[in-house]
Amino acid sequence: GAGVSQSPRYKVTKRGQDVALRCDPISGHVSLYWYRQALGQGPEFLTYFNYEAQQDKSGLPNDRFSAERPEGSISTLTIQRTEQRDSAMYRCASSLELAGPGDTQYFGPGTRLTVL
Amino acid sequence: AQRVTQPEKLLSVFKGAPVELKCNYSYSGSPELFWYVQYSRQRLQLLLRHISRESIKGFTADLNKGETSFHLKKPFAQEEDSAMYYCALSGISGTSYGKLTFGQGTILTVHP
Fold it and tell me: Dihedral angle at the C-alpha atoms of A10, A15, A17, A18, nearest 10 degrees?
């Protein structure tokens, strides 16, 4: 079956522009996670959802970042007024069950964001 | 705060040699620990997790609570093991519940 998909795969934008990154989880998966990965670093947690409810957004770096999952399926991560420091790989993952320590997270291919 | 440390950014071995990728963690409590792997041009995927106590592709990892380590080992490395490996931790309660904290990753290269 289809895995987690993300679009666009690559996004180049100018500083100050808004961007929206999309994640389409595996069908039926309850939980959805967003991570950000800077070059040479491991993925860093941003936020996660159980169904449509955003359970934890403690990893969002500032109020320019927001995420939603209105129907409990597709999620959008929005970055307003992008800055060069926002350049990174943005990874989405989903899991079958409610978020928990033992669940397997299935990752998408990521969106490489470059802010000029 | 929880932290995962992978001290080696790069690790090179020859085919057939044993390999050990180091992972140390700090967490107040008993976390769940994982190894994720990313092969060239593929997405990040789970390799194994402590709770399952399984061996995947010949790899094993033992949790040492005294040393707060979760090193990944394989007795005989293969060329197809060349990849980026991430150690990750998930808290079982509180603010760290469910979300993964990753180490910086180790690039393993297995030479023929």
Answer: 60
Asked if B91 has any chain A CB less than 8 Å from its own CB, the reply is yes
Main-chain dihedrals φ then ψ at residue B65, nearest 5 degrees: -70, -30
- Inform me whether the C-beta atom of residue B45 falls under 8 Å from chain A C-beta atoms: yes
Name, in order, each residue with C-beta under 8 angstroms of B24's C-beta and a sequence gap of 6 or more. Answer: B4, B5, B7, B67, B68, B69, B70
Q: How far apart, in whole angstroms, are the C-alpha atoms of residue A96 and residue B92?
A: 18
Q: Say yes or no: A54 contacts chain B, CB-CB below 8 A.
A: no
Per-residue pLDDT of chain B (112 residues; tens, 9 = 90+): 789 999 999 999 999 999 999 999 998 877 889 999 999 999 999 999 887 777 889 999 988 989 999 999 999 999 999 999 999 999 877 767 778 999 999 999 999 9
Question: What is the spatial distance between Cα A55 and Cα A29, in angstroms, rounded to a whole number?
Answer: 15
State how far residue A38 is from chain B, nearest Cα, in angstroms: 10
Question: Which residue from B43, B20, B18 is spatially nearest to A43, judged by alpha carbons?
Answer: B43
Whether the CB-CB separation of A56 and A69 falls below 8 Å is answered with no
Amino acid (1-letter code) at residue A30: V
